[in-house]
Amino acid sequence: MIPRAVADRARAFALSACLTVGGGCSFAPPYKVPDSGRAPEQYKELADWKVAEPQDAQPRGSWWLVYGDPELDRLEDRIPANLTLKAAFARLQQARAQYRIARADLFPSLSADPYAMRDKYSPNAPKELPGYPTSLNDFLLGADFTYEVDLWGRVRNEVASAKAARQASAADYASVELSLRAQLAEDYFNVRVYDSELALFDRTVASYREALKLTTDLFNGGAAALADVAQAQAQLDNALTQAADVKLQRAQAEHAVAVLVGENPSLFGQPANALPLDVVPPPIDAGLPSTLLERRPDVAEAERNVASANAQIGVARAAYFPKLTLNATGGVESTKTSNLLSTSSLFWSLGPQISAPIFEGGRLVAETARVKAVYEEQAADYRNTVLTAYQDVEDNLVALRRLQEEAESDAAAVLATGIALKQAQDRYSAGIVTYLEVSTAETAALQAEVQAANIQARRMSASVLLIKALGGGWDRASLARQ
Question: What is the pTM of this model?
Fold first, then answer.
């Protein structure tokens, strides 16, 4: 056990160190969030266009529930199995541990170093003295106390930097999760749209087969030209080719869904479920531009990286000044166990240690320049992230706006081409026109319907990306609750 005298002195040094730290200073520049420009009063793309009422509240938490799709909900519940998300969580755990490591330097360190040894010295060694035993025992029970007095804020700035880095890692985790969930929703809706296109091609191929049979019968009866048969055959083959390409895209989208939920694509299957072409994306309230930066985890991550870099400037500046460490060592030592714990075996030492840089070959100057450059880099990244955040919202607002217009005009095109096709088929059946007119009308009708499916996919994608651009219900206040 450590003698009372040594313990009392150690406590006295710890108390004086804590009092000294309380009056310490810091060389880190006063931190303020880099200026990212004035937020606009409203989004430009909302100036003369409003989404349909009733508007949903700003997306919160499980934002995918606004689509009312049980299969999407089931898939989103499996996102925690995603390996990219697990890697992000591991990075968060590392940042949390690094913060605890930095924080440990705020407290004294106390270590015990007991040992028992038997030494044999050479009688021929130069240090050997006449009459001095060549073999002896050495028993020691001791402890070392060390504490760095944080006069210049080096330790506190290291802690502040690690804390900001931990918060940045937490925001990064939220950003990765949001991106993965949005990508999953996009891929899922793409699969459903591909199913819609395949259903369309199934009907089209069946219709083209009937047309080919009819044209062949007419040709055999002398009522149609061979060119009509060739035209009908080519049209059928083209439809089969397009259907095969859609099946390819559908399979690749299904594989992407599998990886996102942590499944082997070879073992994963997404049931066919066509998305109705009249489905309208749910209305999303974009909120005010002034609140966007509080709802974007990537913006919070960039800002916390700036704060971490700012604190590192204080660490670099503190290295120019002397480092004061309080040291104390004490214990008992003897060549015999019988008197090891006696007062006569007591030893101790205590006192401050000061180390100050005299010549570093420009290392400290270079390190200060480096951390300042890191700060400038992080500040520029933050401003760029802010600009990108506004761009993301504006891009998807205009996408929803223009795609709504495209959907309306294409719906009219689908109706018109359907009427034209019916007229062409009737005229061909009556022998008034050649099959070329029917083929042209069928191609136009098919293109209009395929275009409608593509517009539907893009509308759903823009809806998901708008939610992602708005932060998906994330709130910066969650970092303070860490």
Answer: 0.85
